[in-house]
User: Fold Protein-L-isoaspartate O-methyltransferase from Planobacterium oryzisoli.
Amino acid sequence: MQDSFLHKGHRKKLVEYLRDHCSITSPLVLRAMEQVPRHLFLESIFHEYAYQDRAFPIASNQTISHPSTVAEQSQLLEAREGDKVLEIGTGSGYQTAVLVAMGLQVYSVERQKELFDFSHKTLKEIGLRPKFQSFGDGFQGLPTFAPFDSVLVTCGAQQLPSELLKQLKVGGRMVIPLGPLQEQILYRFTKIAPTEFEKESFGRYRFVPMLGSTN
Ligand code: SAH
Assistant:
């Protein structure tokens, strides 16, 4: 597994693009995006394109999100170093690595065994390890580790997963794409009281679906 000056140079350009064209202003996010070698989460045939703002296929028919989407979702968390974050949909592990590089304590859940194994191995090899990785159904969250400062869902949910909102601290935020299979809206829910939430929306996206344990 190798990072190179060429890849580092491409990452610098990607960070400039995120800052200048995607309204990414958080120093924590920009630093993390510059640090994480995205190509190492992709098949080698995609390595030369890894720092373009593109999504790519990964194992189990899933997709690694666009870098701009990863940066936007990470920024919407408004996280501070040391925050405890629950991520649903580890996938390749790239978004997980960005959250770890932001200095967050990351708990991540993936329902595809192949991706769970791949991400676990890759994150270990590049030395950006989350606190805990779980193989299972993200709709249940991780009650034993709750409450969380924030929750980040990287797959499109057709219904709001209420269990995840329960596992959020008061003052915490959940960033989640919600809507039908063809298109979702990216929302941020802020927990302002134990059963009260403020809801904001951040545009249209297309994520792979959030599937239940029996799908
Ligand atoms: N952030 C990931 C994106 C992966 S795509 C990356 O950077 O690569 C979304 C992931 O959500 C897929 O890996 C999919 O298997 C997973 N997923 C879908 N439904 C899920 C569920 N109920 N629980 C956990 N993971 C789920």
